[in-house]
Amino acid sequence: MATTTKIQPRALVRASGGPRYAVALAVDALGTGLLRPFLLLYGVTVLSLSASATGIAMTVGAVMGLVCMPAVGRWLDRGARSTVVAASMLVRVLGVALLLATPAGHVWLFATAALFLGIGNQAWPAAHAALVATVAHGRERDTALAGGRALRNAGLGAGAILATACLAGGTTALQALAAVTGLAYLAAAALAWSVHVHAHPAATPAKGRDDGPAPSMRALLAANVVYAFCLNVTEIAVPLVLVTQLHTSPVWSAAIFVANTVLVVTLQVPVTVLMSRFSRRTVLALAGVVLTASYLGFLAATSLGHGWGAPAIATVAVVCTIGEIIYAGSATAFVTALAPAHVLGRALARFQLSTGFGLAASPAVITALASHGSAILWGSLAAATLISASAVATEKDQRTRLSGCCRRARAGS
Fold first, then answer.
1. According to Swiss-Prot or TrEMBL, what is its membrane topology (predicted)?
2. What stretch(es) of the chain map to CATH 1.20.1250.20?
3. pLDDT per residue over 40-92, tens digit each?
């Protein structure tokens, strides 16, 4: 049975890369929060692009950003850590600079800016996880990854609030927000690079799992595509149901989103610590069960109609957020525990590919399912997530199979 990690703030900061790296994460998240929720608005308002063209450009940028992941994985496996994190931030500086330089009506330049932003956004999670995996070990690593997610959500939330307050300034304010975002990315890149974290895979003792083959993780990666949908449920599925089916005020959607952010910030680390007494595979499967229950809860809440439907959905959204927290606290940590050190970067890159694909596909899938009614939407999500949880729970580790074969071979010799 795994040991439970206690929450010690100083140790948590140290395990997360140190104070300077924590500041880099906060500044980067703040900058992202300033621009990301309003990038569509920037394209429509400042660049005079149509909403459809802007949305397509953003989607293409996010999807094409995934193409860089194999290269990022190989770079990480050569030992780079803080350099890759800083590079992911500098790429976004280029994206913001190109965004500011784009004349009105030039959709291709906007799409190129979105591509640079997409590359940085896709590369950062794997680079950050690899850095934390280098400076922290065991369950301390899990807690450090959870702490980084909580800090990032806090920065995103703060940035979004500041940006919302500035929107009254119109196009000039949006351009100023983009400029501040670029400066924030630049400052964060400098801080991240100054940490100088580098791994030396070649110097790792060639024994045990560190010299083993790369895990296939096929069931985990396939399941993760479905799991990643939960990250967009409170942003897309819930508002869609509340506004189009229950005809409620948008205030409900905003309140649920804010509650989701607050819960992630406050509970991500404690819940991850609480779950550390169980195996990561068990916790990840449990996350799928909780998410499945929440999707069925959303279905039941929707059937209550206009009067009680919105409060019921808000209540169920808390359960969904708990499932999201359990998932986020175990998934990346599970990959870092499965992968041998010399292929950690490639394993994290493959995992980010599955996450990025799930996030990119979920808006289209969710809206398509919702057009056929709540039963199809929530029933399909529940069934797919439960199947994914079962796949995670029943998949056997490659290292376990190999070690079993070796023991049988030694016994027979």
1. Multi-pass membrane protein
2. 13-199, 210-404
3. 888 888 899 888 888 888 888 888 889 999 999 999 999 999 999 999 999 99
Q: Rounded to 10 degrees, what is the CA torsion of 76, 82, 83, 85?
A: 80
Write the single-letter amino acid at 125: P
Of the candidates 207, 89, 78, 217, which has an alpha carbon nearest to the alpha carbon of residue 134? Answer: 78
* pLDDT given for residue 1 in this prediction: 41
Please count the other Cβ atoms lying within 10 Å of the Cβ belonging to residue 250: 10
Q: List, in sequence order, the alpha helices (H) in 102-229.
A: 107-135, 138-166, 170-194, 218-227
Which pTM was predicted?
0.86
CATH of domain 210-404: 1.20.1250.20
CA distance 260 to 292: 17
163-192 pLDDT tens trace? 888 777 788 888 888 999 999 999 999 999
d(CA 149, CA 6): 18
How far is it, in rounded angstroms, from Cα 368 to Cα 198?
A: 45
Q: How many CB atoms lie under 10 A from the CB of residue 258?
A: 14
